Amino acid sequence: MNPDLLEGFYLNNLRVEPRKGKITGRLRSLRLAPRAMDVLVCLAHHPGEVVSRETLITEAWGEGGSSEALSHAVTQIRNTLDDRKDHPEYIETLPRQGYRLLVRPAASPESGDEHPSTGGLQLSIHETGLLENLKQRGVLETGLAYLVFGWLIIQVADILFDQLHVPAWAGTFVTVGVIAGFPIALVLSWFLEFRHGRAVLHEHSPQAAARRRISRTYISVLAALAIAAVAVFFYDRNYGLPVPPAEAPAPAAAVERVLPPVLDNSIAVLPFLNLDGSGETEIFAQGLVDDVLGRLARVPGLLVSSRGDAFTLEPNSASSKVRERLRVARYVEGSVQIRGDRLRVIVQLIDSDTGFHLLSRTFDRLREDFFDIRDEITELTVANVRVALPADTQAEATISPSDPSLDAYVRYRQGVDASRLPPSADTIELALARFDEALSIDADYAAAHAGKCLVYVDAYPISDDPAFIDRAETSCAQALSLNPNLDMVHTALGELYLGTGRYEDAEDAYEKALQTNPNSVASLTGLGEIYRLQKRGEEAEERFRQAVGLHPGDWSAYNNLGYFLYRSGRYAEAAEQYELVVGLNDQNMVGFTNLGTAYMLAGDFESAAPAFRQAIDIEPRPSAYSNLGLMHYYLGDLDAAIDAHRQAVMLAPNDHLSWSNLGDALWIAGRREQAQEAFGKAADLARSALEVNPNDPGYLMDLAWIETMLGQPEEARRRIDRARTLAPGDPYVHYIDGLMRVKAGQVDEALGALEKAAEQGYSIQMLAADPQLAALRAQPLFVKIIDAGNTR
Fold it and tell me: Residue 262 has what DSSP assignment?
């Protein structure tokens, strides 16, 4: 008898262990009597052959056996194997001859024999079961080992990469590689066996599985990691690994809100509620608010919130909301209702701090008494605000020229409403038609002439038709001849003349407006802009500062002053004004962008980044992402810089500067191939732009730097020299020249160019933080340039 069979063998999906007297199947394990096991082993020794009853009796019992004992043993074997005598699968009975084993046995793992490629023991997954296959092929061990080993790799990378300042993309690469390798390891463990150093397809050898399982597990894990690393590398080259969103600011990094103080002599008039919803009632409600506002604004010492700011709130808004948005101590609210020929108006004067009603009055009169109601509301408001005014001044503030008929007033108000629509040829025509209708009823209606004047002034920039200038001047002159106290007419003329370059005429118009209304914010800011353009800095600043606070809640006055300070190179002071802009309007995307830019040029990069993030939260724009990327770039957070610049190029794929900024960040981060791709894209876009305007110094400067980074120094030098000729006073051209010379190793020439850039206004803080200039930071002249700039 073959001694190897005593170590165990397989019959199809059943494992026979003679020494243990046990037969194990997929679902159970049964014991077999020793004599019956001897009979089965004897049959297994002669598979496919007829073994006589005498031979079986002799092998199993020796001299003491019998036919009855053999029959009983065969029956026991069949019961254990779940075999049927009439349709045998394992043991066939041949009458008067003996028995035959129909299945060729395969040796068990202990024997060391190779599994035969033929015979009845080719077990499929369906015969052995999925779990048994996973165990036999070592898949479970491989999976567990891979999870432990992969987790250790990620943990070690997380700790070491941070301490060694390895870029964050390396951590992403490792994590993605480990994740991608897991299914590869399982597949390798399932299909491959490694014999003598080479891989072959798995043939389900139970003998070799136990011995090779551990080594195969290790090889599968290591091979999977190697394959995954290669796959992730090529994926990153072609598609790019996932990048986290750049616009996830931490709550603590938000810009701190700064608000102007609430002064006791400040007031606002909110939109009046239209109770019946009719168009006529809306005309009277809007007109009542505008007229009361206009009269209150002429009261000396009273600070009145502008109509535009007040109308950002709903009628009957909460007092706390009014105080926060408009920064006024008191406000007027009310409602209007028309029933037949009766006009019912309710007004309240409210303390914004406490919400208490300081005044409440109801007017229920004839429709024709509208103007009387308006004047009484103005007088009551001024009286209850208790502004200390000379009696004659207060009286003058509440006296108006003769009022028109209600029909003319209604047409006039319709013209005003049309003029406030988004400007277009249709709205201009509609507004002028309504004003003409009012004038057809009352030819001496000064306000209607003023309305036409304002429409013509607003229409000129849209139409670019010089005829509108003549028409505006004619209408404005008619209005002023009828009522010389219409300061808004002088202001409109000032805007018209300012827009057409007639600065002396504009200055004269604004001065006349201020003689009538010293609190005219539009006239003050207009004068400030004229003085700025004429290089009269001190006078310009004085006018801009006078305008601040005259209209509580008006962020535009702070914005105008901030812009003046920004253009004057006083970036920190400009940032203070922009802080008030976004404090008054926390959804002002332009305000946050201006604030971030002022912080950036002042060298406060840590404050600039949150400002740009909030601008992005309000309205994602490529410029905001680019600026945010620059802040991270100067702060040394290159991964965040790259993320922000990638967002910029996604939103503006045809902007060469966004691609160039991305290339800079990638280059400093050591990702040189990706940087070259970004610079290549930037170069194509910049060259296309130069084809349209070959003399644009900005494009020439940008392309000079891009070509420098692409290794094209001769072409780059030609472009920067051309840019310097076109814009010799631009600090940026000297800055780019300095960068190019640093790349060329021309240290002295680079320092000279950077010194010129600093002298002409380039940000000293940005020079000091620029990663491209790191090689110069120890140079004495560079230190001198930075120190000199900080002491200016």
Answer: P
First to last CA, the chain: 106
H-helix or E-strand containing 274?
Answer: strand 273-274
Sign of CA dihedral 272, 285, 401, 454: positive
State the amino acid at position 422 in one-letter form: P
What is d(CA 88, CA 23) in angstroms, rounded to the nearest whole number? 18
- Which residues 6+ apart lie within 8 Å of 591 measured at CB? 555, 559, 578, 581, 582, 585
Name the DSSP letter for residue 305: -
DSSP state of 730: -
**Beta-sheet strands, E only, within 25-131:** 29-31, 50-52, 91-94, 98-101, 106-107
CATH code 1.20.1250.20 for 3-122:
no
Q: What is the pLDDT of residues 519-575, one digit of tens each?
A: 889 999 999 999 988 889 999 999 999 999 888 988 999 999 999 998 888 889 999
pLDDT at 417 over 50: yes
CB 15 within 8 A of CB 44: no
Bridge pairing between strands 22-24 and 357-366? unpaired
pLDDT of residue 112: 42
Virtual CA dihedral for 147, 153, 159, 165, nearest 10 degrees? -140
- Answer for the pair 642, 665: CB distance below 8 angstroms, yes or no: yes
Among 94, 89, 91, 114, CA closest to 44: 91
Burial of 780 (0-12, 13-18, 19+ CB in 10 A): exposed
Beta bridge partners of 192: 201
CATH class of domain segment(s) 263-400: alpha beta
Q: H or E stretch including 365?
A: strand 357-366
Write out the H or E segment, with its range, that includes residue 717.
Answer: helix 713-726
Neighbouring CB atoms inside 10 A of 236's CB total 16
Beta strands at 357-366 and 303-304: parallel, antiparallel or unpaired: unpaired
Token pair listed for 420: 């406030």
Q: Which amino acid is at 198?
A: R
CA dihedral (661, 664, 669, 675) in degrees, to 10, reads: 100
Q: How many C-beta atoms lie closer than 10 Å to residue 470's C-beta? A: 11
Which one, of 471, 536, 542, lies nearest residue 503 by Cα? 536
Question: According to DSSP H, which parts of 164-255 are helical?
Answer: 168-191, 206-238
Question: Taking 50 as the threshold, does the pLDDT of residue 720 lie above it?
Answer: yes
The torsion angles phi and psi of 790, rounded to 5 degrees, stand at -70, -20
Q: Residue 70's CB: how many other CB atoms inside 10 A? A: 21
Which uninterrupted H or E stretch holds 716? helix 713-726
Write the burial class of residue 685 (CB in 10 Å: 0-12 exposed, 13-18 middle, 19+ buried).
buried
Compute how many other C-beta atoms are within 10 angstroms of the C-beta atom of residue 719.
25
Which residues 6+ apart lie within 8 Å of 34 measured at CB? 21
Question: To the nearest 10°, the Cα dihedral for 658, 659, 663, 664?
Answer: -20
Q: Which two tokens stand for residue 82?
A: 């779940």
Cβ pair 491, 512 in contact under 8 A: no
Whole-Å CA distances, 165 to 17, 100, 170, 636:
60, 74, 10, 11
CB 578 within 8 A of CB 562: yes
For the stretch 740-745, contacts whose Cβ atoms lie closer than 8 Å and that sit 24 or more positions apart, written own/partner, are 740/704, 740/705, 740/708, 740/713, 740/716, 742/772, 742/773, 742/775, 742/776, 743/708, 743/709, 743/713, 744/713
Residues linked to residue 364 through DSSP beta bridges, in sequence order: 344
Domain ranges (residues) in the chain: 3-122, 134-238, 263-400
Residue 197 predicted with pLDDT over 50: no
> Which run of H or of E encompasses 743?
helix 731-743
Which amino acid type is present at position 9? Answer: F
User: For residue range 669-696, what is the model confidence (pLDDT) as tens digits?
Assistant: 999 999 999 999 999 999 998 888 888 8
Tell me how many degrees the CA angle 159-161-166 measures, rounded to the nearest 5: 160
